[in-house]
């Protein structure tokens, strides 16, 4: 990225089409999770910068953006997607430096989805109808009702650090497609790609104030100032369930609309009749991809008893074949955790598992990393067996490269175990019995059930969680439900 301060890259807010620093001069370091070294400085927004960003977003709604014909708005969003693709390698490097994730992962998942999130919603908005009804009236003339969608207004987008560009654009894409303006607060851990998107917005010709970015933390910082701002019309948030709860409390006075995608403690249900290769490959990805930092990831693996030993042995082998390393090493399959703080959290679960009587099948500690990587927040990918269903690592979201594997004997038993959680985000079912697949999918309490796959995403489908895993659904027309106000017009004829 082209901006620099004292030889380090400097990340500023993006307000009303311009990169600006904080008036207070307050900054915080951007730390590489791979090395523990500082790679940049980030401006921390005070209330003043947040208010300015919200004001810019409000003004933009009343300006050119608010009057733009739909076709022109959609053309602009296609230009934004093209702009991401044109600067693919810059986005890739920025994302990988902030997160430490393998370049191969970001190349195939994060950056392409960043562009796709704009295209898919630009195309969708043009084609989704609204309803109309003719009403009989006593005078025989009738009345015509028709519904129209209008932008909700200024949307606050609060995004996490695990899939920074993907999850931020998953919200910004539909919000802008629906004609809203946005103020984004990316995670303090991963400020870079959201900021780079500001340049792409300007280059694409998106009017000033439509896309704004403020940096900072949650409480007593940019997150709190944004969620308590009266002019915010909707908040879309992905992150931890406890943070969702804090945001909900902060919005109570203003009755701000929210859409939340929160944590998970997702099960994989692996039946003896499954395609073993596919189930192994899928579970290795669902439990360990992105160093286990995916809210849809599997942390509880249930395997039908006849194949338990073989599955476990092969899963162990798969994990032990994983190579931890630098993002730009093509042989790397796993990066570090996002921060030292998160590393401490995950390691505390590794200790708890042992205290609670787990059999550590593989991993369970910190790896020795060479050179600069020795200072990073690395943990070993880990598998446990032998714990009861109420053990901490079986109950609580860890968000690390680890899973507990347990045997089961019947469909009824495994469904009960899968549902014995406060969460309800995702589940993966592995079976070659189609009738069983339908039966189990119907009974598992999760917003997304994958059968013989994981993370296979059609962006037109409803996406979100049951129970403590979220409020509402986004994806396809469901995004339109959140990002627009549906107004009924009744015309007496
Ligand atoms: N998608 C998911 O399910 C995710 C789950 N997590 C879990 O959450 C744990 C904590 O990670 P964090 O990055 O701290 O997640 P978080 O949920 O605290 O952070 C997500 C976003 O919310 C913001 N935020 C935090 N507190 C806020 C507040 N009171 N008001 C407004 N915004 C606020 C953060 O600055 C960040 O942009 C992780 O250890 C992991 O277990 C983290 C990220 C994503
Ligand atoms: O939208 C997707 O495809 C992925 C979503 C993943 C998360 O929300 C997460 O890991 O936090």
From TrEMBL:
<dbReference type="GO" id="GO:0018480">
    <property type="term" value="F:5-carboxymethyl-2-hydroxymuconic-semialdehyde dehydrogenase activity"/>
</dbReference>
<dbReference type="InterPro" id="IPR016162">
    <property type="entry name" value="Ald_DH_N"/>
</dbReference>
<feature type="active site">
    <location>
        <position position="261"/>
    </location>
</feature>
<dbReference type="Pfam" id="PF00171">
    <property type="entry name" value="Aldedh"/>
</dbReference>
<dbReference type="InterPro" id="IPR017628">
    <property type="entry name" value="OHmuconic_semiald_DH"/>
</dbReference>
<keyword id="KW-0520">NAD</keyword>
<dbReference type="InterPro" id="IPR015590">
    <property type="entry name" value="Aldehyde_DH_dom"/>
</dbReference>
<protein>
    <submittedName>
        <fullName>2-hydroxymuconic semi-aldehyde dehydrogenase</fullName>
        <ecNumber>1.2.1.60</ecNumber>
    </submittedName>
</protein>
<feature type="domain" description="Aldehyde dehydrogenase">
    <location>
        <begin position="20"/>
        <end position="489"/>
    </location>
</feature>
<dbReference type="InterPro" id="IPR016160">
    <property type="entry name" value="Ald_DH_CS_CYS"/>
</dbReference>
<dbReference type="InterPro" id="IPR016163">
    <property type="entry name" value="Ald_DH_C"/>
</dbReference>
<comment type="similarity">
    <text>Belongs to the aldehyde dehydrogenase family.</text>
</comment>
<dbReference type="InterPro" id="IPR029510">
    <property type="entry name" value="Ald_DH_CS_GLU"/>
</dbReference>
<keyword id="KW-0560">Oxidoreductase</keyword>
<dbReference type="InterPro" id="IPR016161">
    <property type="entry name" value="Ald_DH/histidinol_DH"/>
</dbReference>
